[in-house]
């Protein structure tokens, strides 16, 4: 029986597409991290709802899903396979390497070359794939954001896996501009995934530089790092627009630069619908001016 192709929801398509590796994906994607239990550890609170969220995301046109085998650990990858395998044509699954979890849920570096090889093999097995379109290497030199340090050995290991056909493209996460530039001397970088939002704007120059090169930038924590006053100001803008603060934050990111790809996560179909609707939220000029004042100078 022929597979039913889901109708692309206007809310997802409204934000347009951008290149990620060899694919042009919708700029509004989905991040699977929140499908795991509290603290991104252990099983989901509601497994049936987690499966339903993944299926609904794809049904609504999402074609970019971000995951990692250390979410759970293993939980999100196993859920993705159960919900979506065999995967529809055009779906890009992006995973992340560089960390592991201890038996209490702690986050530990795990980025020796042999660790990365094992990590790719684990992701392939649990996702039911022969090749992962994009693998992000997460720098673990600091638990509190990017910190300088060489990633040469790690990138050389991933480039070897790429040559073997196990990886399509390589991305970087939690990295500095220096690490990005050094990494590009070893292998083409398909995307960067860092903390960035309206008030945390350390990567402004990096985003513009990547856009000039045609490289995607995927921000995480769209509401992370807001002060109470900034949160109140964002909420006021959202009320005026009849939207949620998260929708406004996501809409601002989409407007910020055409190479930004979003991966908001949720374990609820209701919140999923709200997040996806941000792709079609238009921000009037006065709202944009207010938002820029909220974030002005933050993160510098």
Order of helices and strands: HEEEHEHEEHEHEHEHEHHHH
Our count of domains comes out at: 1
Structural class: alpha/beta
Note the total helix count: 11
CATH architecture: Alpha-Beta Barrel
Counting DSSP E segments of at least 2 residues, the number of strands comes to 10
* Global Rg: 18 Å
- Can you identify the CATH superfamily? NADP-dependent oxidoreductase domain
End-to-end Cα distance: 56 Å
Q: Which regions contain 5 or more consecutive residues with pLDDT less than 50?
A: 1-7
Average pLDDT rating: 94
Report the oligomer: single chain
* Main beta-sheet annotation: 8 strands, mixed
**In percent terms, what proportion of residues is strand?**
15-25%
* Helix residue percentage: 25-40%
CATH fold node name: TIM Barrel
CATH class: Alpha Beta
Judging from the principal axes of the Cα atoms, what is the shape? globular
């Amino acid at each position: 029986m022929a597979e039913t192709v889901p109708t692309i929801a206007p809310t997802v398509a409204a934000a347009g597409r951008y290149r990620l590796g060899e694919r042009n994906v919708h700029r509004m994607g989905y991040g699977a991290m929140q499908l795991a239990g509290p603290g991104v550890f252990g099983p989901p609170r509601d497994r049936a709802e987690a499966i339903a969220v993944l299926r609904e995301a794809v049904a609504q046109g999402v074609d970019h899903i971000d995951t990692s085998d250390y979410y759970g650990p293993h939980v999100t990858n196993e859920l993705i396979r159960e919900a979506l395998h065999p995967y529809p044509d055009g779906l890009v699954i992006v995973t992340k390497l560089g960390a592991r979890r201890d038996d209490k849920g702690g986050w530990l570096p795990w980025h020796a070359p042999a660790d990365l090889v094992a990590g790719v093999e684990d992701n392939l097995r649990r996702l039911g794939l022969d090749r992962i379109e994009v693998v992000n290497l997460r720098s673990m030199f600091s638990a509190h954001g990017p910190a300088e340090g060489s990633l040469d050995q790690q990138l050389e290991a991933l480039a070897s896996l790429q040559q073997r056909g196990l990886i399509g493209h390589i991305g970087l996460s939690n990295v500095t501009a220096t690490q990005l530039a050094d990494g590009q001397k070893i292998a083409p970088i398909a995307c960067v995934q860092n903390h960035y939002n309206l008030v945390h704007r350390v990567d402004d120059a990096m985003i513009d530089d990547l856009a000039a090169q045609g490289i995607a930038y995927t921000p995480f924590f769209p509401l992370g790092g807001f002060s109470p006053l900034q949160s109140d100001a964002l909420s006021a803008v959202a009320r005026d627009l009849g939207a949620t603060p998260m929708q406004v934050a996501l809409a601002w990111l989409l407007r910020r630069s055409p190479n930004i790809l979003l991966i908001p996560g949720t374990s609820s179909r209701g919140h999923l619908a709200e997040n996806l609707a941000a792709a079609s939220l238009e921000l009037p000029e006065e709202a944009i001016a207010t938002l820029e004042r909220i974030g002005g100078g933050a993160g510098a």
